Amino acid sequence: MRAVLMAGGSGTRLRPLTCDLPKPMVPILNRPIAEHIINLLKRHQITEIIATLYYLPDVMRDYFQDGSDFGVEMTYAVEDEQPLGTAGCVKNIEELLDDTFLVISGDSITDFDLQAAIAFHRQKGSKATIVLTRVPNPVEFGVVITDKQQRISRFLEKPSTSEIFSDTVNTGTYILEPEVLQYLPKNEESDFSKDLFPLLLEQGEPLYGFIAEGYWCDVGHLDAYREAQYDGLQNKVKLDFAYEEKSPGFWLGQNTYIDPTAKIEPPVIIGDNCRIGPGVIIEQGTVIGDNVTIGAGSELKRPILWNGVTVGEETYLAACTIARGTRVDRRSQILEGVVVGPLCTIGEEAQISHNVRVWPSKRIESGAILNINLIWGNTAHRNLFGQRGVTGLANIDITPDFAVKLGAAYGSTLKPGSQVVVSRDQRSVSRMVSRSLIAGLMSVGINIQNLEATAIPISRTMTPKLGVTGGVHLRVHPDRPDHILIEFFDEKGINISKSKEKKIEGAYFKEDLRRVSISDIGDMSYPAQVIETYRQTFETQLNVEAIRNMGSKIVIDYVYGVSGAILPQLLSKFGCDAVVLNASLRQTPVSNEERESLLHQLGQVVEAVKANLGVQVSANGEQLILVDESGISVRGEMLTALMVNTILRAYPRSTVAVPVHASSAVEEIARRHDGNVIRTKANPTALMEASHLYPNVVLAGSGETGFIFPQIHPGFDAMFSVAKLLEMLTVQERSLVQIRDELPRVCHKSYDIRCPWKVKGALMRHLVETHNPEQLELIDGVKIINPQNDNWVLILPDGGEPLVHIFANSDDREWVDHTLKEYRQRVQEFIEQEQDDMVSI
After folding, report:
1. Widest pairwise Cα distance in the chain
2. Does 594 share its domain with 681?
3. Nearest 5°: CA angle at 209, between 208 and 210?
4. CA-closest candidate to residue 425, choices 488, 491, 486, 492
5. pTM (2 decimals)?
6. CATH number at residue 781
7. What's the domain range around 419?
8. Same domain, yes or no, for 734 and 761?
């Protein structure tokens, strides 16, 4: 059997180790990852290997040559012009694959039984078999579900935390029949997980998953790189070592001298031609390459030293990685998580702080303390984007220097000369961060349309009207007053897609930022009549005369925010009498307790002035809470139902989109008006995308997120929601109290349970496996439904916290209470069992 070794990866997240080295050639225990894979293939009698190359192909060809020195037959296929993807590169060598063949990733460490997988493939008569394994945290991998016959029924490539429905993942090893390649186009980029396997599933071809026992580590980032070394030393994975094991856990190369006073605590590996000086302490987990010199009195606590490293006297190295040819002078300290690229010089008594990365050929002066990456930028983050844009602690995570680099990374993904809208809330911290982000954008040749402090619905409206490429809005996070939230949107005003987020992350992590000449630096302009433009757009979607005839009185709580100031201006044009509260703009965010106090005050004022309704606008113009004429607040699920009922009454047989966890009152209301309901994932971007993609959507959102009216713009808009509601109340001749009284009586409760990140995937798989598939909906989390009625329970992993949310919904309050209690117990017991298993292991 032939094997295809996919070895074209550039290893972006392993930089600076991969700046001059392809990812499969990065050493693990002093041997390239690819060599460990070749040894695995050889142990399973697979000796004909075709390596597909793209990034720095000569490095691998020069090392392995024809493979004869390694006991195999090596040939190479190089993607010259463009990367063809995991499947495209295999399609490119289709003529060499005339029988069952194996595809294996060149950037993982494993000791799976490949012959068992091949036997399983043949026994099942499979066209394609994916080798699977179970991992504690499946977020970074392709998640897969198989049925009882191990036939694949569902998979999702690199899910977000809330999308996890299993902990069984794709390891990048496949056994394939040649005919499956006929499904792939020639000379085009294609991927096994995204393109080929979904197509085979759709065509009904036999597609199986073999759940392998044994060790597997995807060396995808720097922490995993270190962990794989430590696991290898502890024999958690079966590997062929390059050196003789002199004593248990102590592997030593040839021609190496170790001073008798040195102390070595196994497991440790030391390569050929090394020199270990007197008084050196080498603790367990240390990996030392060939031709390394360690000076007297140095202390090594689990560092990984590549070939040719020189370490001076009395140096302290702790769980760091130092690449080839680097010199570390005496009394230097390199702390945990540090990665130093090849051919660097670290001066005497220099200190490199935790998790700092140093790019190749850099020099750190004697006595220097380095606590940022030694390349343009700050401490590296693994992921920039969360469930909802980029967020972090104000002026701690989201700092001016971070924002400059983020702006430059975003701008580097756009064409030079592109225009971008930038807006913010009124807070001084947002102004500071937006100025830094604008500087980064302009530095890479992007022109700015600066809307300054304005509500986010106005920014989304102006984005397509100004004809710009995209937009950025900065504000204090709606739910976390000590955090900043930065959202990016496309030319339509919709939050950017995951693929665009990945491009920005790629530019940020690679530090691959465009620089333009002085003449090409971006310009900044300030569009005129922004609020007037928004008002005109507003009017096109309203029955203005109906609102005027009503002569409404409305009380508006600004909550000290810029968004509140706009709404009275708009309503006064329509003849509404607006009473405003808390009108001054405040720099400090409003706490949740203070917001509740203001809401109580709003109810009292509505009653006192006999207003038609009151509204508290928050989240920079996106979210709202209503107060009816009797002073009672309308929020959450009741607000969702009220808005859906009001809009579908005016637009029967239309469609509304709500998140997966919204109350079933929505479906009941839709049935009354012959309408349709689309359920989306729980995140705001999914609601925006649904309102844009599906036809006939008149309303999207919930009381939790705010509401989208796609005909005005694709974002949440509290201000338009209020104006549209006033129009509906007039036309339908009803009050909020009357509407509220006719809403369906549905019991909808939720409960939160703390759940470690590593348990979430296993929990979701357990729930899927222990319920009838006909009762399951896997839009987001695991939803167990009763097809005969609207009873359901939803277990939804939180996207940003170690939590699981449990929602129960029914017309029957007792059923909700019983079900919520039952699933709380089931989930809690499973979490405790998993944690006990982890401790015992």
Report:
1. 98
2. yes
3. 120
4. 486
5. 0.67
6. 3.30.310.50
7. 391-528
8. no
